[in-house]
Amino acid sequence: MTCWKDVPAEALDIAPNCSVVSRYGIGLDNIPIGRATELGMLVTNVPDFCLEEVSDHVMALLLATARQLLPLARTPERSGWTRETPRPIPRVSGQTLGLIGFGNIARALVPKALGFGLRLIAFTPRLRPEDAPDGVETTNDLGQMLAESDYVSIHCPLTEETAHIIDDAAIGQMKRSALLINTSRGGVIDEKALIGALQEGRIAGAALDVTDPEPPAAGNPLLSLENVIVTPHAAFYSVAATAELARKAAENVVTVLRGEVPKNLVKAEVLDKENCRLPNQTGVQ
């Protein structure tokens, strides 16, 4: 079982009796899934973990940046009783929230965002428009979504395809008034490009629960810029969510060790392999 730590392929190579690698969470970028599958190991995760918590956190970050809560909270001590803010405060209702990726967390966000009167547009090449929930437009044109959005929230996993999906060119397609929100993985953003854009005013601000690397190095400008909120990869957290995660991750392991197929098997093709390590197929204990 693993949570944050990377699992090197070499570790799997020297574990001949390992039947299952259980991810204590959703993301799988720290597990060499391909190598595990080659070796006949089952890989599991908990894809419905913290859906409410992360989607709540996205809305909290969106509202905090849109309403400029941090500058306003500091104003009484710094400047007295004034309502001056670094930039104009928009009316959230009627603005556009763009979603990069449309998995479980993004779907959990939909009713919350619609409740604030936001228009939703999702960049999700694999979803047919007719399959989108009510109130959600879809597009396979990232540039279109970026150009139309007042807020861009990232919900895709970190893969070779999505690494630095937000780079200098992508930022250049965003509105200067746009706010970028990331609760996915730090590596989906080119951090150097983001810092430059924030310092130069090419986008209005960012709210990040993840960075690359984590934790960010001392002196990282993201930690001191007035138009940035950084939280320490805490969007997943609630007492209920962590208790549920522990139970479901353990259930995945127990299910495999009983010789049964787990509900949250990541690569089903492993079951067809001659060297599959599901105990009732191989005798592995």
Automatic annotation (TrEMBL):
Q: Identify the residues that the record assigns to the D-isomer specific 2-hydroxyacid dehydrogenase NAD-binding domain, covering every copy.
A: 59-235
Q: Which residues form a coiled coil?
A: none
List the InterPro entries: CtBP, D-iso_2-hydroxyacid_DH_PdxB, D-isomer_2_OHA_DH_cat_dom, D-isomer_DH_CS, D-isomer_DH_NAD-bd, NAD(P)-bd_dom_sf
Pfam families named among the record's database cross-references:
2-Hacid_dh (PF00389), 2-Hacid_dh_C (PF02826)
Sequence ranges assigned to domain D-isomer specific 2-hydroxyacid dehydrogenase catalytic in this UniProt record = 6-267
Record-annotated membrane-spanning stretches: none
Question: By its UniProt entry, which PROSITE patterns does this protein fall under?
Answer: D_2_HYDROXYACID_DH_3 (PS00671)
Q: Which Gene3D superfamilies match?
A: NAD(P)-binding Rossmann-like Domain
> What's one GO MF term for it?
transcription corepressor activity
Family matches, as SUPFAM superfamilies: Formate/glycerate dehydrogenase catalytic domain-like, NAD(P)-binding Rossmann-fold domains
Which family is annotated? Answer: Belongs to the D-isomer specific 2-hydroxyacid dehydrogenase family.
Q: PANTHER family attached here?
A: D-ISOMER SPECIFIC 2-HYDROXYACID DEHYDROGENASE CATALYTIC DOMAIN-CONTAINING PROTEIN-RELATED (PTHR43761:SF1), D-ISOMER SPECIFIC 2-HYDROXYACID DEHYDROGENASE FAMILY PROTEIN (AFU_ORTHOLOGUE AFUA_1G13630) (PTHR43761)
Q: What is this protein called?
A: C-terminal binding protein
The organism is Caldilineaceae bacterium SB0675_bin_29
Q: What is the lineage of its organism?
A: Bacteria, Bacillati, Chloroflexota, Caldilineae, Caldilineales
